[in-house]
Specification:
Blueprint (H helix, E strand, L loop, with lengths): L3 E6 L3 H16 L3 E2 L8 E6 L4 H20 L4 E6 H5 L1 H7 L5 E3 L7 H11 L3 E3 L20 E5 L1 E2 L10 H5 L3 E2 L2 H13 L4 E5 L18 H9 L6 E5 L8 H9 L6 E3 L7 H7 L5 H14 L4 E8 L6 H14 L3 E6 L17 H24 L5 E9 L6 E6 L4 E5 L8 E9 L3 E6 L6 H4 L1
Parallel strand pairs: 1-2, 1-3, 3-4, 4-5, 5-6, 7-10, 10-11, 12-13, 13-14, 17-19
Antiparallel strand pairs: 8-9, 15-16, 15-18, 16-17, 18-19
Helix pairs in contact: 8-9, 12-13
The structure holds S-adenosyl-L-homocysteine, iron/sulfur cluster and FE3-S4 cluster (F3S).
FE3-S4 cluster binds next to α1 and α6.
Length: about 450
């Protein structure tokens, strides 16, 4: 009988991408993916530890799975990803019924390890070296039909003082450009059209490759954008320190590279930025945004912001509000600071109370929504190019596509348009979504004749 796999993924796009590979590897062994936990033979959770709350969600999920296992003891439970890497013993202690704990550099061993557990009946923990290379060309089962996540850098070497990622993902390593180009070329043959190049500090791409192979993100964009069938390319996340004029000029020059920058500022006060070890000042950030807008006046600029970093005063926070208003961000992922193991900021004694953090987060969210709405209102009456992803979840007669600036746009249309680039006139906007009508392009003369 076919065995079934259920996967729950928390965290960032890198984790989504790892999950797609684990599913691909398991499918190659004959497993079928299911979205029903009750019929699964293997339950897998790919975890995130960027904030404490994400970890708490994990243990409540594992508790539920333990109950399923009590009814059907043959079920195998696996924990992968950042929490597994970071707290393997803790996972074992709090959830001793877990069969497999696999670190971030070993996810590709999943099928073999499952066989081993099934044969021996004993649980396995496999946490490898964070410097180990991650193999290319793993079978992958993608979530989308037209859009694919493509990691180009693994890990991060920045060590911002609040962040756990360098401890769970290891030092940064770029993939070879040929491997990336090969992956994308294969995907275009399967009908994929849009590619998001992933890395924690994607604009550092290529600088760590061996002498002779060194390259840049700008050069990689040229290589990828020139592949036949590549209609759209995006990249994220950019670190402001590494954003170069060459990169911005390349985005402006290549028509199939989207004018979309995920460009987190994190805080609006130089004092806090310094203590976060972000390595830029507010002024330097402003200059980089001005440079982007000089080349691409309508570029989408989104980011991430943390409120309630240790020692953040009301004045520091006011500076964050002021910069959100000034930069006119299209969107921001906002978060309340969460103490993380090993991180220098986590050891500080001047932690803020949960109440202060929650209040600041609420005020920031209100402003980011207002600013996003203001940005979107400028789009009313404009014509936007969309890549149509499919019918909207709520209404099958309404399609959803993304603009070049990565905004979701809903419009009435026929399902045949799925996977196509269309032009839509924006008629109505909300803070985070757009609505529009298809523009009937005039039939070219030679076709009309
Ligand atoms: N590499 C990206 C961010 C990766 S983590 C960058 O440098 O911007 C994703 C986001 O989680 C971060 O941008 C940050 O806003 C948030 N984050 C990271 N550590 C956090 C912590 N300890 N508390 C709250 N938010 C955090
Ligand atoms: Fe974390 Fe900073 Fe690296 Fe981003 S750049 S992943 S915030 S350490
Ligand atoms: Fe979370 Fe790990 Fe990504 S901590 S944000 S899943 S790199």
């Amino acid at each position: 009988m076919t065995k079934r796999l259920y996967v729950k993924t928390y965290g960032c796009q890198m984790n989504l991408s790892d999950s797609e590979k684990m599913v691909g590897l398991m499918a190659a062994k004959g497993y079928q993916l299911t979205d029903d936990e009750l019929e699964a033979d293997v339950l897998l959770v790919n975890t995130c530890s960027v904030r404490e709350r994400a970890e708490e969600k994990l243990f409540s999920l594992l508790g539920q799975w333990n109950q399923l296992k009590a009814k059907k003891p043959s079920i195998l439970i696996g924990v992968t990803g950042c929490v597994a890497q970071q707290e393997k013993d803790h996972v074992r202690k709090r959830a001793p019924y877990v069969d497999l704990v696999i670190g971030t550099h070993n996810f590709h061993d999943l099928p073999d390890l499952l066989d081993e557990v099934a044969q021996t009946g004993s649980p396995i923990t496999r946490i490898g070296n964070l410097k180990a290379p991650i193999p290319d060309d793993l079978p992958t089962m993608r979530e989308g039909k037209y859009h694919a996540w493509v990691p180009i850098i693994y890990g991060c070497s920045y060590f911002c003082t609040y962040c756990i990622v360098p401890y769970t993902r290891g030092p940064y390593q770029s993939r070879q450009p040929e491997a990336i180009a090969r992956e994308i070329a294969d995907l275009t043959a399967e009908g994929f059209k849009e590619f998001t190049l992933l890395g924690q500090t994607v604009d550092k791409y290529g600088l760590d490759l061996p002498e002779g192979d060194k390259t840049t993100l700008a050069a990689l964009l040229r290589l990828v954008a020139a592949l036949p069938g590549v209609e759209r390319v995006r990249f994220l996340t950019s670190h402001p320190l590494d954003m170069t004029e060459e990169l911005v000029a390349t985005v402006a020059e290549l028509s199939n590279v989207m004018e979309y920058f995920h460009f987190p500022i994190q805080a609006g006060s130089d004092k806090v930025l310094g203590e976060m070890k972000r390595l830029y000042t507010v002024d330097q950030y402003r200059e980089k945004v001005a440079m982007i807008r000089r080349y691409l006046p309508d570029a989408t600029i989104s980011g991430d912001i943390i409120v309630g970093f240790p020692g953040e005063t009301e004045e520091d926070f006011a500076a964050t509000l002021a910069i959100v208003d000034e930069i006119d961000f299209d969107s921001n992922n906002t978060a309340s600071y969460s103490i993380r193991p090993w991180t220098p900021a986590g050891k500080r004694e001047d932690q803020l109370s949960e109440d202060v953090k929650a209040d600041r987060l609420r005020r920031l969210n209100q402003l980011t929504t207002e600013v996003a709405f203001r940005r979107n209102r400028r789009l009313v009456g404009t014509v936007q190019e969309l890549l149509v992803e499919g019918p909207s979840a709520k209404n099958p007669e309404v399609l959803m596509g993304r603009t070049r600036g990565n905004k979701q746009c809903f419009f009435p249309g026929s399902p045949d348009l799925q996977g196509q680039l269309v032009k839509v006139e924006i008629t109505e906007v909300r803070p985070f979504t757009l609505r529009g009508e298809l523009v009937r392009t005039a039939v070219p003369l030679e076709l009309a004749l």
